[in-house]
Structure formats: C-alpha cells, structure tokens
Design brief:
Layout: H1 2-36, H2 39-70, H3 74-107, H4 118-141, H5 144-169, H6 176-209, H7 213-220
Helix pairs in contact: 1-2, 1-3, 1-4, 2-3, 3-6, 4-5, 4-6, 5-6
Length: about 230
C-alpha cells in the first residue's frame, strides 16, 4: 500500500512537469500566432488548453483522494497541498497563453501588435517561455538555488512591461485606442504568466525546505552598512 501511495505522489509530480512543459510551449506558439497573425496556430493553442485543464482536474481529484485515504502528515502533506497550488498556477498559465491566442484570432487577418512593438512582444514571449522551462526544470530537479533565481529573471519581464507601457503613454502613439487596449492586455498576460512561473518555483522551495522562498532570500541577502559603524 505504501509503495502504491508513493507511486501516486510521484505521478502527481510527473503531471506537474507535463503541465509546465505544455503551457511553456503554448505561450511560445501563442506569441508566434499573435505576431504573425496565424489563425491556424492560434486555434491550435486554444484547443490544446483543454489538455492542461484535464491534467489539472485529474491531478486535483487524485490529490484530494490521497488526502482522504492516506491522511498524510509532515512532508507528504506538504507535497500534496503544494502540488494542488502549483497545478492551479500552471492551469492559469495555460489560460493566459490561450488569451494571447484568442486575441490573435479576434484581430485576424489584421495584426494586433504594431510593427514598432513587434520586437518587445517577441522578447516577452520568449522570456515567458524560458521562465516556464526553468520552472519545469525546478520541478524535476528540486534545485532550490535555481528556483530562487527565477524571481531575479522575472525582473527582466517587469522591465519589458514598463517599456511597453512607456510606448502606450508616449504622445507620439499613432495606433489608436483599440490597439492600445490590445497591447495593454498582452503586456499583462505575459507579466502574469511570468509571475505564475515564479510562483511555481517558490512553491518548490517550500516543498523542499519547509521555508518560504522570501524568507530564504532575506536570510542570504548581503549585509550592507557603513564600515566601522
């Protein structure tokens, strides 16, 4: 019985990795769809999100069943509860990739992103995909140091988001209100996607150490001060 129990725990972990890989691929393909106005690819991303939803629902059902049957304590309880939270982060990430694809579909055959912002959106999409790939790696390796790095990597997304916003408020903006709304939404989708990748990594830190990532990072911050004070 205990072997079956731990196999089920491992299976839940495998499904989290699969979800992370699927949503990472989805945000990459959605970015291509929005930039190239590729309707077929957009539809593919939208349809593929069902698999992520199915994985999340199945994982949730198995995790709740484990809680009811096994009544896990200590580390095992932390695994089950944290897995439920990570699956919610990953499911939401899939939704955000789907939102990008739906915007591509909505504006087809026009392009939602003006030419002068093409490079910025491309960079945001590539960064979002890299962050989720790192989150998937953290899920596999349980590497706390790599998990803690993700928050620093996310600073780059915040910079890109601010850069995007600066374009929107520039008095030289000539692309109209509808495009401004589209670009605002896109920026928010990518920023939130990155936040969910960071959240997954932080939850792995808690899973491994029993401490929250913010607490660990505050402990390892270099002490600064006036010499001789």
């Amino acid at each position: 019985m205990r072997d079956a129990y731990h196999e089920e725990l491992d299976s839940i972990g495998d499904d989290l990795v699969e979800m992370a890989r699927l949503v990472g691929s989805a945000i990459g393909r959605a970015t291509t769809a929005i930039l190239d106005s590729d309707l077929k690819l957009a539809e593919n991303v939208i349809e593929a999100d069902k698999k992520v939803d199915d994985l999340q629902h199945n994982l949730e059902a198995r995790a709740i069943a484990l809680l009811a049957r096994q009544q896990p304590v200590a580390t095992d309880l932390r695994i089950v509860v944290t897995s439920l939270r990570m699956s919610a982060d990953l499911e939401r990430s899939g939704d955000l990739a789907q939102h990008v694809a739906k915007l591509a579909r909505l504006r087809f055959p026009e392009r939602a992103v003006p030419h002068d912002l093409h490079a910025t959106i491309l960079e945001m999409g590539q960064l979002a995909q890299r962050l989720m790939a790192k989150a998937a790696e953290v899920l596999v390796t349980k590497d706390v140091d790599l998990a803690l790095q993700l928050e620093q990597d996310d600073d780059e997304m915040d910079l890109l988001h601010r850069h995007l916003f600066q374009h929107l408020i520039d008095e030289r903006w000539q692309h109209g209100i509808e495009t401004a709304v589209d670009v605002t939404l896109l920026g928010r989708y990518y920023e939130r996607f990155a936040d969910h990748a960071v959240s997954v990594a932080k939850r792995v830190v808690y899973l491994v150490t029993g401490e929250h990532a913010d607490e660990i990072q505050s402990e390892i911050q270099p002490v600064t001060g006036v010499e001789g004070a």
